[in-house]
Design a protein that fits this description.
Length: about 475
C-alpha cells in the first residue's frame, strides 16, 4: 500500500508538472505572439466551451470514479458514460452549428468558438476513459492519456511562433489536431492496458439510475462550471477582450501555482471513499495533512507575489506583470482556501453528502456572481479577483459549519496562522530591502521561523509522515 501510494502520487505529480509546463508554454506563446484583443478572444472562446462541456458531464464523471473505486462493474459503467457523452456532446454541437446560419459568418468570436469547439468535443468524448482509469487508480495510464493534446499544441505553437506564421487560423488547426489525437490515443491506450471490451450499449434503466444518483452532483457541476469561468466571460463581454487577456494571464499563473493541490486531489477521492467504507478515521494524520497543505499554499503565494512583477514583466516585455500586481495578490489569498475547501469537499463527497455539497456551491455561486456584477464594472480585473476571494471564503465558512467530524472542528486554525505568517513576512521583507532577490530569501527565512514558532511544523510530524504513506 505504501509503495502504491507513493507511486500514484509521483506519477500524478509528474503528469501534472508536464501538463502545466506545456500549458504554460502554450499560454506564453499565445500571450506574447498575439495582440491582447486576439488573445482575449481565444480565452473567451475557451472559457465558454470549457464551461459548457463541464456542465454537460452532469456530475456523472465524479460519480463514475466513486463507483468504480467502490468495486462497480467497470464495463457497464463505462458503456453508460460513453453513451452519455456521445448524446449530450453531439446534441450541443449540432445546436451550436445550426447557429452559423444566423450570425456565424459575420461574428468572428462565434466562428472561433465553433471551430475550437470541434476539438473540445473530442476531449469531451475522451472523458469516460480518463475517469475510468482514475477510479481504477491507474494513474500511470491516466498520465499518458492526459498529456497528448498539450504536447501537440505546445510544440505546434512553438514551431508556428519560430516560423513567424502564428495566426488565429493556424492556432485553431493546432488546437483541433491535438484534441482529436488525444481522443484516438485515449481509446487505444485504455483498450490495450485494461483489456476491458469497449461496448456501447444503450441501457436505459441503468443510465437513468446513474443519472438520478448524480443529480445532486449535477447541480454542483452546473454551479462550479459557471463559477470557474463566469468572471472570464463577464469581463470579456462587459469590459473588453483586452482586460480579459490581462486577467486570464494572471488567473492562468494562479492556476499553475495550485499544482500541489491538483496533484493530490485525484488521489483523495478513491482514498477517502475506502477510508469511510472501513470507518477508519485517522484524525491526527488528517490534521497533519491540512497543516502541510496550508504551509505549501501560503509559501507558494508568498514567492509568487515577491517574484511576480520583475519576472513576468521580463518574460512578456512589460505586457502582463505590473498591471496584474493587485490581481495576483488577491488571487493568491484564495490558495489556502481552495486547499481547505477541497479537503472538506472530498470528505463530504466520500460520505455521500451530495445535497449539502450542492447547497454550498449554490451559496458560493451566488456570492461570486453578485460580486462580479457589482465589482467588475468599477474595479475591473481586481473586482473579479475580490469576488472570487469572497466566494472561496464563504464556501470555507459553510464547510466548517457543516463538519460532522468533531475531531476536525479546529482544522481551519492553520489557515489563519499560515496566511498571516506569509503576509507578515512578505511585508517585513519588502520594508527591509528594495531589490527582489534580497527580499525573497529573507521572506522565506522569516516564514520558516514563523511556522515553527506557531507550531505548524513540529518534530513529531515525522511519525505522521510514516502513517500517511502507510494508508
Amino acid at each position: 500500500m505504501k509503495r502504491r501510494l507513493i507511486q500514484n502520487l509521483s506519477v500524478n505529480t509528474i503528469q501534472l508538472i508536464i501538463n502545466q509546463l506545456l500549458g504554460l508554454g502554450i499560454f506564453y506563446v499565445l500571450s506574447t505572439g498575439l495582440d491582447k484583443n486576439s488573445f482575449g478572444q481565444i480565452n473567451l472562446s475557451l472559457a465558454i466551451l470549457l464551461t459548457v462541456f463541464n456542465i454537460l458531464s452532469f456530475g456523472i464523471d465524479q460519480v463514475v470514479i466513486k463507483k468504480i473505486a467502490a468495486g462497480a462493474d467497470i464495463q457497464s459503467i463505462l458503456s453508460i458514460y460513453i453513451c452519455h457523452v456521445l448524446i449530450t456532446g453531439l446534441v450541443f454541437y449540432g445546436l451550436m452549428f445550426s447557429g452559423v446560419a444566423l450570425f456565424g459568418h459575420t461574428n468572428t468570436l462565434y466562428t472561433i468558438i465553433l471551430l475550437i469547439g470541434v476539438g473540445k468535443l473530442m476531449i469531451f468524448f475522451s472523458t469516460p476513459f480518463k475517469q475510468a482509469a482514475n477510479g481504477m487508480e491507474r494513474f500511470k495510464l491516466l498520465a499518458y492519456m492526459s498529456v497528448i493534446s498539450n504536447v501537440i499544441r505546445c510544440f505546434g505553437l512553438i514551431i508556428l511562433g519560430l516560423s513567424h506564421i502564428l495566426s488565429i487560423n493556424n492556432i485553431i488547426l493546432i488546437f483541433i489536431g491535438g484534441d482529436v489525437t488525444e481522443l484516438i490515443i485515449c481509446v487505444y491506450l485504455f483498450s490495450r492496458s485494461t483489456k476491458i471490451p469497449l461496448t456501447i450499449i444503450w441501457d436505459r434503466a441503468n443510465y437513468f439510475k446513474l443519472f438520478r444518483e448524480s443529480l445532486p452532483q449535477t447541480g454542483v457541476v452546473l454551479i462550479t462550471s459557471a463559477l470557474a469561468r463566469f468572471d472570464w466571460i463577464f469581463i470579456g463581454v462587459i469590459v473588453s477582450a483586452v482586460k480579459l487577456a490581462e486577467y486570464s494571464f494572471a488567473y492562468k499563473i494562479f492556476e499553475i501555482s495550485t499544482l500541489p493541490l491538483l496533484a493530490i486531489a485525484p488521489l483523495l477521492i478513491p482514498f477517502f471513499t475506502k477510508l469511510f467504507q472501513h470507518k477508519d478515521m485517522r484524525v491526527a494524520e488528517l490534521k497533519f495533512l491540512v497543516r502541510i497543505e496550508m504551509i505549501v499554499a501560503t509559501f507558494i503565494g508568498l514567492v509568487l507575489n515577491i517574484c511576480w512583477s520583475p519576472v513576468i514583466d521580463g518574460l512578456t516585455s512589460g505586457k502582463y506583470g505590473s498591471i496584474n500586481v493587485k490581481t495576483i495578490f488577491i488571487l493568491s489569498l484564495c490558495m489556502p482556501l481552495l486547499y481547505l475547501n477541497n479537503f472538506f469537499w472530498t470528505i463530504y463527497f466520500a460520505q455521500g453528502r451530495l445535497k449539502m455539497i450542492l447547497a454550498s456551491f449554490i451559496v458560493t455561486f451566488l456570492v461570486n456572481v453578485t460580486g462580479d456584477i457589482l465589482l467588475i464594472p468599477f474595479l475591473k480585473n481586481e473586482g473579479a479577483a475580490l469576488a472570487f476571494l469572497a466566494a472561496c471564503l464563504v464556501q470555507t465558512i459553510y464547510y466548517i459549519k457543516r463538519n460532522n467530524v468533531k475531531q476536525l472542528a479546529n482544522v481551519w486554525h492553520p489557515l489563519i496562522a499560515c496566511t498571516l505568517g506569509a503576509s507578515l513576512t512578505g511585508f517585513i521583507s519588502k520594508i527591509l530591502f528594495r531589490d527582489t532577490w534580497p527580499i525573497l530569501p529573507s521572506a522565506i527565512a522569516f516564514y520558516i521561523v514563523i511556522i515553527f514558532i506557531t507550531g505548524q511544523i513540529r518534530l513529531s510530524d515525522r511519525n505522521y509522515i510514516k502513517h500517511l504513506f502507510n494508508w
